Amino acid sequence: MRSIFLFIGFFTVLFLDFSFASVSPFSLLGSDVYFVPKLLFMMLLLVSIYFGRSYSIFFSIVFGVILDLYTGSIYGIHLFGFVAFVLFMHSAFRVFYRDMIGLFFVVIVNTFLFDFYIYGIYKVIGYVDLPLFDYIALRAVPSLLLNALLYIPLLIFVLVLRKIRKNVFTKHA
Hints:
two-stranded antiparallel ribbon
């Protein structure tokens, strides 16, 4: 039962990511400012901490493939990034599940590093020609602020999902 709700939750978060990306960029003082939510990635990191490695790796692979197929730019970039960052998060930071402030900073920093990883791959292959300073000022910092705001509702959502029983047919004594 928990897996079904997790899948629905991941699919909803993926839809929210795509929906918000359709209204970005915003024009601000003559410059295009990009607010890019990474709700799917942050949820993968939180699932890695609160549900375990098997759930997070499975959903990283499934939604990495879906995201790579949807974007269609470079196949495997999100899949590899999701799996690598989730494994890193699970192995290095599972002590943060009780420290909410520490977990917040770790998830936000990993989200920034994941976005920078995507930018770096795109920059190396020539898919994007945005200079580093413009990337940081017009995309990374606004996206970091947006993701910090969206983290709290996402954490509450993951904690509610954690309370769902694994099997709906278990008997209570």
